[in-house]
Amino acid sequence: MPGDATPPRPPPPELPPGLLAEYLESARSQLGVLAGLAHRIAARSTDREALDALRREIHKVHGSAGSYGFMDASRLAAGMEATVKDWVARPDDKDVDRGSVAGWFVKRLAEMLGVEVPAAAGLPSMPRVGSPPRPPRPQPPPTPGPHAKPTPPTPPSAPSTPAPPAPPVRATARGSETILVVEDEEAVRSLSRRALEASGYTVLAAADGPDAVRLLERYGGPIHLVLTDVIMPGMNGRELAERLVQRRPGLRVLYMSGYPGDAIVHRGALEPGTAFLQKPFMPEDLARKVREVLDQG
User: Fold this and answer.
1) Whole-prediction pTM value?
2) Spatial separation of the C-alpha atoms in residues 34 and 12, rounded to whole Å
């Protein structure tokens, strides 16, 4: 499966200092996990446990890479996730060399993020990923012959029309309330926490549902909103929100997921009209949505 290497896209300017380096370090570890799964699938393409684990890990990449500005990597992960879903649905289908495809994905993802796959992980053999094409060298203008007609002078160009003024930059929605962030993917949890703190909020962070329940019970101050992932191991976001609202009536809830909102509703994980933010999201999008939910009547 060929492809052209793409240099990593610069991070969005909204990222707090140092956060990108933290993400890339966690991404490198995640590439090691993906490479290990690619090895397992190369050894046995019908390994259902490895296939399902690969799908879950790729889903995390789809949500986190885009939120950190690597949209091409996020789109690559979305396409690969759809492919692996088909593998999970038909685990005994051997028409495709799944190990090679999974290995190609890991290497391509590493190139897009600008990080290396951990040396200990290695990768199964795979088609070579192409290098970016070299830009053409500028050619000197042709030398005119002895009988060439002189080139007429270029007429002066008309005065250019001044460009319209740039639209005013919209200020990030700010606040001072307390937000509980619940997300099992560390990169997204860290981004959400720091983005909200930069917007003036007090942020409590939990890695899963039980951790969030314990944190809420210990915290003596007010909590105004819980931002929770929908799909989490153990306790899903809807179940968690119901437990938290029982303990703190009036607590507002904002769900997030890498799956589209209509797909989440269709699966019965959320009710129609529920406040929802789809991953990947930029920090300013998160702050704006949180402010919108807090300001609802």
Assistant:
1) 0.69
2) 26
- For the chain, domains (ranges, CATH) are 19-113 (1.20.120.160), 178-295 (3.40.50.2300)
Mean pLDDT rounded to a whole number for the chain: 81
36: its two tokens: 């290990």
Nearest to 279 by CA among 199, 192, 153: 192
Our CA angle for 19, 25, 27, nearest 5°, is 100
At 119, the amino acid letter reads A
Which residues, in sequence order, are CB contacts of 219 under 8 Å at separation 6+? 204
Q: Residue 1 above 50 pLDDT?
A: no
pLDDT of residue 144: 55
CA atoms of 231 and 216, how far apart (whole Å)? 20
Longest dimension (CA), the chain: 93
- Which pLDDT score, from 0 to 100, does residue 152 have? 55
Parallel, antiparallel or unpaired: strands 202-206 and 225-229: unpaired
> Six-digit token pair at 239?
């179940």
